Amino acid sequence: MAHHRQHSTQTTSNSHEQFSSHVVPASVLVAVFAALLVLTFLSWAATWVDLGVWNLWLAMGIATVKAALVALYFMHLRYDPSFYALVLAVALVFVLLFVCLALLDAVEYYPDIHAMTQG
Amino acid sequence: MTEPSAINYLTYPRGLRSWLLTLDHKRIGVMYLASVALALVLGLIFALLMRTELIAPGRTIMGEDTYNRVFTVHGAVMIFLVVIPVIPAVLGNFCLPLMLGAKDVAFPRLNLASLYLWWVGALFFLITLAFGGLDTGWTFYTPYSTTTNTNVLAAVTGVFILGFSSIFTALNFIVSIHTLRPPGMTWRRLPLFLWGLYATGLIQVLATPVLGVTLLLLAVERILGLGIFDSSLGGDPVLFQHFFWFYAHPAVYIVILPGMGIISEVIPVFSRKPIFGYRFIAYSSVAIALIGFLVWGHHMFVAGQSVLASTIFSALTFAVAIPSAVKVFNWLATMYKGSIELAAPMVYALVFLFLFGIGGLTGLFLGTLSVNVPLHNTHFVVAHFHYVIVGGAVMAMLAGLHYWWPKMFGRMYNQTWARLSALLIFVAFNMTFFPLFIMGGRGLVRRYYDYSVFLETNPEFTFYNQLASVGGYLLVAGFVSMALCLISSLWRGRPAPANPWGAPGLEWQSSSPPPPENPPPPVQVGDPYDFSEALLPSGT
Amino acid sequence: MNDTENPTENHSANSQHGHSPFLAHHFSSHRQQYEAGKLGMWIFLLTEILLFGGLFCAYAVFRANRPEIFLWAHRFLDKPLGALNTAVLITSSLTMALAVRSAQLDRPRRSAFFLVLTLLCATAFLGVKYVEYKHKWEDGLLWVRQFRPVESAAVSGEAGAADQRPRHAGIFFSIYFAMTGLHAIHVLAGMAAVGWVLVRTLRGHFNSQYFGPVDYVGLYWHLVDLIWIYLFPLFYLIH
Amino acid sequence: MGCISTTILIAAAVLAGADLQRDSFWLPPPASSTAPVVDNAFLLLLGVSAFFFALIVVLGLWFVVRYRRRPGQGPEHSPSHNTALELLWTAIPLAIVALLFYQGFTGYMELRTPPKQAYEIEVVARKWSWLFSYPNGHKDENLHVPVDRPVRLVMRSEDVIHGLFIPAMRVQMDIVPGRYTRTWFRALKPGEYNLVCSQYCGTKHFDMRALVIVHPPGEFENWLADAARAAESLSPVDRGRELYRINGCWSCHSIDGTAGTGPTLKGIFGQQVQFQDGTSAVVDENYIRESILDPQAKVVRGYQPVMNTYRGVLTDEEISALIAFIKSLQ
User: Fold this and answer.
1) Going by CATH, does the domain composed of B16-509 fall within 1.20.210.10?
2) Residue D76 lies in a domain
3) Cβ contact (<8 Å) for D194 and B453?
C-alpha cells in the first residue's frame, strides 16, 4: 500500500500543528470522587427511612446526580464541545422514549395478564 | 475517448491480498456490491420457490414445513443481508468520501471490519440453512421462536453480528460527515444523498443496539429459560414485540432514507435543475429518522397492545407520513420546467416515484386504526412493504447504481437495454404485487402455505396467485437482464468520461474510475446543485 | 460545536515533533484525528446506552407490573457487597481519569501506574461479583426456569419469606442476571481495552499530541461505571 | 389544488355512504354491524390515495414529456424553492391525515368496545385448532352465534400466539399466551363464514380454520341446548370421538393410518412403539393417559416433542372416553 504513505502538501503542513487539549486538574477529579462516595452512602442511607414511592425517585435522583458528575468531569463533558453532550442526551432521550412508551402500554394491558394468573 | 486510466483504484494495487486487506472505501464498496448481489440471488431463489408453491392451491412442490422455512429465509436474507446494508454499504461507501471531498471514511479499518462481519453474518445464515433451517418468520416472535426446534440460535447469532456490521458503517459515516468536510463544505452544501446517509446512520446507531439486546435475550431465553418473553415463566410475549419493532420499524427508514437521498441526486441531474427546496428535503430526512422511532406500535394494533398506546402510535404514524409526501412534491417541482433526459437512472427514479407512491399511500391504510384491523397480517401488508422496500429502496438503489456505475467501473452501459430492463421490472413488479393488495383486502392471510380455505368464497384467488407467480418470474428475468446489461458493459462498454451526466457533484471531478487515492478537494467547494456552469457532458 | 469549526484550517506549522507515525493518512491533523476518534467513541457509547436501554425497559415493565416480586426478592441481594462494588468501580473511574490526565501531560509512567490501578479495581469488582453469583448459585436463586431457592436462603429474621413468595419470583433474578451479567461482560471488555492501552503506554506510544486511545478507553470505562451507578439502587436499594 | 382534493374527499364520502351490502371489489361482503365503519374508512382512504397517486403519475409523465431535453435548449428559469408553496403542500396533507386519523380512531373505539350486554363465548386457540365454550358448558370446534346479537369473545392461547380473524366480520385480534384478549361483533345475516388463524403459528397455520355459523333468530338457543344434551347421552366411544374432534387432536393425529405431525391413532392400541431414547413399550391405557397429561415424557421415534399437555383441559372421565375411542380404532 505504497500510496498510503504519500501525502499531499496540504496534509503535511497541517500534520505538524500542535494542539493542546484541556487537562482536568487532579484536585477536581479527587473532589468528584469524594462526592461520588458520599452520594453512594447517602443513597444507601435513604433506604433506612420509609418515603413510600419517593424512595425510588430519591434513589434515581441521587444516581442521576452521580451520573452527571461522572459525565461532566471524568468524561470531560464540561470542558468539551457541547456536541458530545448532545450525543449523550440523544441516547438518554431515546432510551426514555422507548421505556416510557413500552411501559405505558404494558401497564395498560396488565389487567389481562393479571386476570389469567389469578384465574 | 481514451481507455480508462490504467492506474485506478480497481487495478492498483494488484492481487487478491490487496483487495482483502484494503482500507480503500471504494474497494470496500465494490466488494460489498458483489457480496450483497450474491445474497440477493439467494433471497430471490427462495422467493421463486415460494411463488411456485403458490401457483396452485394445495401442495405444488413442497410440504408445509418446507414452505415455512422458505418464506422465513427469504425474509431474513432479504432484510438483514440485502436491503439494510445495500445502499449505505455499497453506494454510501463508494460515494461518501468522494462526494464529501475526503480521502477516506474516518475509520477505514472499522469499515473493512464491517464487511468482514457481514461475511461472518452471512456464513451464520448458511449454517442456519444447512443445520435445521429456520421457520420463525423473520420477526422471531416469541414464544414460537423459543419453542420451535429449528436453528434459531445460529440465525440469531448471524443477525446479531450483522447488527455490528451495520453499526460500524453508520458510525463511520456520521463521524466522517462531521469531521472530514473540507473547507467550504458546509452543512448547507452537503449533497442530499449524504444527508440521507447521515439520517440513516442516526437510525442505525440508535435502533440496532436494541435489536442486539432483543436477540441476546431471545438466545438466552432459548438456552437458559430467562423467561422475560415467556408467558409460562411469568414473562410477556407482547414485550418482545415492543422490543423487536423498536428496531424493525426504524429499519424501514434505514432502507428508504438513503434511497430518497439517491432520488434527490438523480432527479436534479437529469432535469438539469437545482433541487427544489433543498433545506426541506435535507431536514425532513432527519425529521423522518427521529419521528420514525415513535411509530413502532402500529405493527401491534391487533397484537394485544392497549387501545391507548395504539391511538398514540397511529397519530404519530400519520405525522411521519407528511415529510415523505412533501419530498415527493419537491421532486416533482424539481422536474417542472427542467430539461429532462430519460437516461436509465432517471427511468428508475420515475419507477421509484410511482411504486413508492403506492407503497406510501397504502401505508396510510395500515396506519388507520380501524382499517388496520381486517388488513393486518394479510397479503395487503405483504404487498405494502414490498412496494416500499422493493418499489422504493431497491428501485432507488438501481437508480443510484446506474447513475454511479460509470464512475465505479469506468464504463458506459447500453442505455436502451438498461431502460428496457427497467420497464420490464416495473411491469413485472406490479403484476407480482398488485394482486396481493386485492387478495389481502379480501382476507387472504400472509404466511399461508395453502389458500384453499378461501377459494370457496374467493375462487378468483387462484388466478391472482398465478398472475403474481408469473409476474415473479418476469421480475427476476428483469433483474437478470438489468445485471447482464451492467456486467457486459465491463467488457463491451464505451469508456466513461469523468462526468458523463454533466453533474455538478464533487464525485464527478475525479477520473472514471477514480485513482487509488481520492483527489484533493477543490480550493472552493461549490453548490452541489449548481447547473449554471453548463456542465453538459463533453463527449456525448 | 466542534463540527462547525473548520478542521483543516491552517495553523502555524512549527514542526518540532516531525511526522507522527500514528497520524493516519486520511486525517490532515492530530486534532482532526483526535476529534474524529472522540466523536466515534461517543457514538459507540450511544449504542451501548441503547443496548442497556432495552434491559432497563424490561426492568421498568416488570417492576411496574409486579412490584411485589421486587420487594420480596431484593432482600436476597447483599447490600454491603453492592455498595462495596459501587465504591470500587468509582475508584477505578478516578484512576482511569488520572491515567488520561497523566497521558495528556506527557507522563507515560504515571499513566501506566494509574492504568494498573484501574485494572486492579476491575479485578476486585469481578471478584466481589463472583462471590455474589456463587451465593446465588448455592441458594438456587437463579433465573426463572432454574429458580429453586433452598430453604436456608430465607434471610435470617425474615421468617416465612418462602411462604410469601410471589408467583414467578424468579423473574427478578432473570433481570438481575441479565443486567449485571451484561455489565460484567462489559467490565471484562473494558479490562481488555485498558490492558491494550497499558501495553501501548509502556511502549511509549502516547504523548500530549497523541493520547486519543487512552482517552477513548477512559470514556468507555466511565460509561461502564455510569451504568453500574444505576444498577446499584435499582437492584440493591429497593425499599 | 386544495379545492380539487376537497372535491375528491366529498366524492369519496358519497361513495362510502353507498350501499355496502354489495360485494365490493376490495373487501369481502360485510356481515357484521361494525363492518361499515371499517369499509367507510377504507373507501375514503381509497379515494384519497387514488387522487394523490393519479396526481404523481400525471405530473411526473407530463413533465417528462413537456420538459424533455431538446438539443440546444436548457431548462427554463424557475425558483429553487418557494416557502409558501412548500408550506401549503405540507398543510394540505396534514389536514387530510388528521381527518383520516380521526376516522380510524372513532372506528377503532367501536371495534374495541363491546356492548355491555354482549353474549360471551370463551375461545381457546392452540396448534392448530379452535375450541369455543358456551355459557352452558358446551364446547364446540366451530363458532356458533345468534344473528343480530353482540357476541363477545374472551380468548386465550395454550401455546404460541395465534390470531382470530373473521374477514367478513372485519374482526381480527391476536391471542397471546399468558393473558386474555377480547373482541366482539354482531352478525347481520345468518350463514357460514370463515374464521382463520392470522398470526403465524407453525406447520398447520394455514389450516387452522373454523366456521362461524350464524343462526337465524331463535334457532341459536335450540341448537345450543340440543348440542349440550347430545354430548351427555353419548356412549364412551362416541364421546371420545367427539372429544377427539373438538379438542383438535385430529390436526396432528389421524385416524385413517396416515402419519401427521404426530403418529396416527389407527390401530395404535396394543402396539409396541419405539421411543426417541431407544426404549419401547406397548401402548396401553396408562401410556395413553401419560401421553395426554405429559406428552414430552415418551415421544415416539420419528416425531418431534411438540405436543402440549392437556392437564387441566381434559377431565379424568374425558380421558377415559378418549382411551375408549382410541381402543375402538382397530
Assistant:
1) yes
2) no
3) yes
Residue (of B13, B51, B10) closest to B34 by Cα position: B10
Rounded Cα distance, B451 and B435, in Å: 14
Kindly report the number of other CB atoms within 10 A of residue A87's CB atom: 20
Chain D residue at shortest CA distance from B368: D104
Consecutive H or E run containing D215: strand D209-215
D105 close to A (CB below 8 A): no
**Nearest Cα residue in chain A from D154:** A112
Do D17 and D44 touch, CB atoms closer than 8 A?
no
Q: Which of B507, B515, B525 is nearest to B93 (CA)?
A: B507
Cell numbers 479495581: residue: C121
Number of domains into which chain D is organized: 3
Higher pLDDT, B273 or C154: B273
The end-to-end CA distance of chain C, in Å, is 43
Chain D residues whose beta carbon lies within 8 Å of the beta carbon of residue B357: 52-53, 56-57
Tell me which residue range forms the domain holding D31.
2-67+81-112
d(CA A91, CA C226): 14
Q: Residue D297 corresponds to which cell in the numbers above?
A: 415424557
Least CB–CB distance from A94: residue in B206, B236, B305: B206
Indicate the pairing of strand D129-133 with strand D119-126.
Answer: antiparallel
- Domain CATH code at residue D150: 2.60.40.420
- Helices B64-76 and B25-53: crossing angle, nearest 10°? 160
ipTM associated with this complex: 0.90
Query: pLDDT tens, D184-212?
Result: 999 999 999 999 999 999 999 999 999 99
pLDDT at B311 over 70: yes
**Which of B226, B233, B525 to probe the C interface (max C CBs under 10 A)?**
B226
User: What residues contact residue D53 under an 8 Å CB cut-off, 6+ apart?
Assistant: B354, B357, B358, B361
Q: How many angstroms separate the CA of residue B104 from the nearest CA in chain C?
A: 6
D83-89 long-range contacts, Cβ below 8 Å, gap at least 24? Answer: D85/B333, D86/B277, D86/B280, D86/B326, D86/B329, D86/B330, D88/D2, D89/B325, D89/B326, D89/B329, D89/D1
**How far lies C151's CA from each of A69, B226, B455, C161, in Å?**
43, 22, 61, 10
Helix (H) or strand (E) holding D157: strand D151-157
Name residues whose C-beta falls within 8 Å of residue B116's C-beta, 6 or more positions apart in sequence: none
pLDDT, one tens digit per residue, over A67-79 is 999 999 999 999 9
In the numeric block, the cell 436476597 is attached to C76
Helix or strand or coil: residue D273?
A: strand
User: Could you list the residue range(s) of the whole structural domain that residue C93 is in?
Assistant: 51-236
pLDDT tier for residue C161 given thresholds of 50, 70 and 90: low
- H, E, C per residue of D3-52: HHHHHHHHHHHHHHCCCCCCCCCCCCCCCECCHHHHHHHHHHHHHHHHHH
Q: Are residues D224 and D248 in the same domain?
A: no
On whether any CB of chain B is under 8 Å from the CB of A105, the answer is yes
Cα distances from D97 to residues A21, D39, D41, D103, D205, in angstroms, run 52, 17, 12, 10, 35
